[in-house]
Write a structure and sequence with these properties.
Elements: H1 9-18, H2 23-41, E1 44-46, H3 49-64, E2 78-82, H4 109-116, E3 120-125, H5 159-166, E4 172-177, H6 183-189, E5 192-195, E6 215-220, H7 223-233, E7 263-267, H8 277-292, E8 296-300, H9 308-323, H10 341-352, H11 355-368, H12 374-394, E9 400-404, H13 420-424, H14 431-436, E10 439-447, E11 454-461, H15 466-479
Parallel strand pairs: 2-3, 2-4, 7-8, 7-9
Antiparallel strand pairs: 1-3, 4-6, 5-6, 5-10, 9-11, 10-11
């Protein structure tokens, strides 16, 4: 067990700042764990040790020069980055053959923010190809295994980020969440996964999958670490037209406050048959824990929940079809020649994209096509509005919503690979937050018995009310011990 994995980001950064801990020794302890565990779980797909040591040296020099360090909350902290977020001079493969040897020429806004905060970027994390998947099995770079049991998937699409945090290969990681891609793997790997409100964090430098749904967020060991990470990456960015000029709260200072009287709603549509027995039991115990902390629990209804999956898969595939049109073999990335431009496109896209990405592009192109646009895409947008109204109505009566993150624990590698619909259904509880644009968090709330696999609890808050979300999540976390358990 890595002693550093049990330290909070804040305490670790403070030790580095005071000189009690050197950046090099901290980095070495994480590199050692990567060397030991990454070959088995394959969470990180690219590790540039030379670059990491260079970063460590620069951070040490900054400390020794006596420069002001008060705005460096991530000083020397090793962080992994999902391989669909641009980091200058590093691979940006999106786990696709289409971008096999592509190196990013620039930094995403969130990467610039991490660097400014003193973070040490330690590796690229695996994902489903172009973030399309729920298991990290569609990656062209090979699948990632769940650190708790290597026969099981880690979730997706941010499976590499979640597995890396869970196994202690980094102190925190960035992921992206389009329909649950941060929260679902956090649940399966037993760590904390935060999806900020849409527009809270800049998407500049995130390879677009579905532009009205995508959001970057952190995966961490604890709620406090998630709060520190969010403070660092949140904020308005003129480079992202969907970024919102809303004030960024001091999220970490809201932690530890009493949640007595906080109103928590249980959407009855989320507590239905099909929930695994042990998941139901763990979530019921979490609800009891919130009651013990003084929260007021009440049932609410989100009546259009049953249409969420269908709505999501029409909208996200339509947007993917448009966004992935840029990968054509003409300007950059994979290229297969042909006798004319049409054949070049067909050859390039035919060999560059994997089966799941092709499936979504074809579906998206179909729902946008003449004669079907009104029947599918337009109708899906109307249903999306109804789903948003459900949430607005529920939030008139409660401050937060509480649900399971996923209906069950992680499934076995290969178990759902041949059945896309079963794979899509694993995101049934997480999708709505993306359709609506509100914030959500998954945190550990128990384990299944045989095999021992983590169970996640989801809290959802109103748009731009991450402070309340984190405050409640932290209160629950501090009253339980699930977050202290590590797989290796």
């Amino acid at each position: 067990m890595n002693e550093h994995s049990s330290h909070s980001i804040r305490s670790q950064a403070a030790r580095i700042q005071s000189g009690e801990q050197s950046v090099h020794s901290l980095l070495d302890s994480f590199l050692e764990r990567i060397e030991t565990h990454n070959p088995r779980i394959h969470a990180l797909t690219h590790l540039d040790q030379e670059d990491a040591r260079k970063q460590a040296l620069q951070i040490e020099e900054t400390i020794q020069s006596g420069q002001a360090l008060q705005n460096k909350p991530l000083l020397g902290i090793p962080i992994a980055i999902k391989d669909n977020i641009a980091q200058q001079g590093h691979p940006l493969s999106c786990a696709s053959n289409m971008l096999k040897n592509f190196v990013s020429p620039y930094d995403a806004t969130v990467i610039a923010a991490l660097k400014e905060a003193g973070a040490l970027l330690v590796g690229r994390a695996n994902l489903d190809e172009f973030a399309m998947g729920s298991s990290t099995e569609t990656s062209s770079l090979g699948l990632t295994r769940n650190p708790w049991n290597e026969a099981f998937i880690p979730g997706g699409s941010s499976g590499g980020s979640a597995a890396a945090v869970s196994a202690g290969l980094c102190a925190a990681a960035l992921g992206s969440d389009t329909g649950g891609s941060i929260r679902q793997p956090a649940s399966f790997c037993g760590c904390v996964g935060l999806k900020p409100s849409y527009g809270r964090v800049s998407r500049y430098g995130l390879t677009a999958f579905a532009s009205s749904l995508d959001q970057i967020g952190p995966l961490t060991r604890s709620v406090e670490d998630a709060a520190v990470m969010l403070e660092t990456i949140a904020g308005y960015d003129p480079k992202d037209s969907t970024s919102v000029q809303a004030p960024v709260g001091h999220y970490s200072s809201a932690l530890g406050k009493d949640i007595k009287g906080l109103r928590i709603g249980l959407p009855k549509e989320y507590f239905v048959d099909g929930l695994a027995e042990e998941t139901r039991s763990a979530v019921d115990q979490a609800i009891q824990q919130f009651e013990n902390l003084g929260a007021e629990i009440q049932e609410v209804s989100l009546p259009h929940t049953e249409f969420a999956i269908a709505t999501y898969y029409v909208i996200c595939t339509a947007e993917a079809s448009a966004n992935l049109a840029r990968f054509d073999g003409i300007r950059y990335g994979h290229r297969e020649e042909g006798k004319d431009p049409a054949e070049l496109y067909a050859n390039t896209r035919g060999s560059g994209f994997g089966a799941e990405v092709k499936r979504r592009i074809i579906l998206g192109t179909y729902v946008l096509s003449s004669g079907y646009y009104d029947a599918y895409y337009l109708r899906a947008q109307k249903v999306r509005t109804l789903i948003r109204k459900d949430f607005e109505q529920a939030f008139k009566h409660v401050d937060l919503l509480l649900t399971p993150t996923v209906p069950s624990t992680a499934f076995k590698i290969g178990e759902k690979a041949a059945d896309p619909l079963q794979m899509y259904l694993t995101d049934i509880f997480t999708i709505s937050a993306n359709l609506v644009g509100n914030c959500g968090i998954s945190l550990p709330c128990g384990f299944s018995s045989d095999p021992k696999l983590p169970i996640g609890l989801q809290l959802m808050g109103k748009p731009f009310e991450e402070e309340t979300l984190l405050q409640a999540a932290h209160a629950y976390e501090q009253a339980t011990s699930w977050h202290h358990e590590m797989p290796v």
